[in-house]
Predict the 3D structure of the following.
Amino acid sequence: MPLPPRIPLRRAQIEQVVTAFYARVRRDPVIGPVFLERLSDDAGVWRSHEAKIADFWANAILHERSYNGNPMMVHSGISTIKPQMFARWLDLFDDTLAQELPDGIAAQWSALAHRIGRGLRMGVEMNTANSGPPILS
Ligand code: HEM
């Protein structure tokens, strides 16, 4: 018996939100440069990034076994990502959810994104703390 979706969404809605979100990310003055430096502005690279992110959410929400990456390792490994940028990422994501989905569904997905975002931010904070100058007691 397949598990019911964590949030009542269809795959097509997930892809629609991911496309709308990264269109905003590319225009954002705070987190846009981090993505452009990492992914360039090549449309093909962005299409495969968006396909990977759609798989990530389809795995988390619809229990599709379509993603097997390690977001914590990826984000902790990007030195240009600063802990304070997560608030901006989540604000943009919430705006996109509110624009693309009914309120109740948007709120459920937002709660999940904020929970994952908190975890990724902690990973980046720990990484930033460990890479700083040694604390001489
Ligand atoms: C400060 C906020 C964030 C920034 C600047 C950021 C930036 C990036 C960049 C540049 C990549 C591409 C890495 C690459 O392929 O070389 C990436 C990958 C990814 N991001 Fe983020 N991200 C942020 C927050 C988040 C959050 C909050 C989530 C989830 C809720 C998330 C989920 C992912 C996933 C799933 C990948 C793919 C990782 C893989 O390669 O398997 N990101 N992110």
About this structure: Residues 31, 34-35, 38, 52-53, 56, 69, 71, 74-75, 78, 81, 85-86, 89, 113, 116-117, 120 surround protoporphyrin IX containing FE (CB under 6 Å). The mean pLDDT is 94.
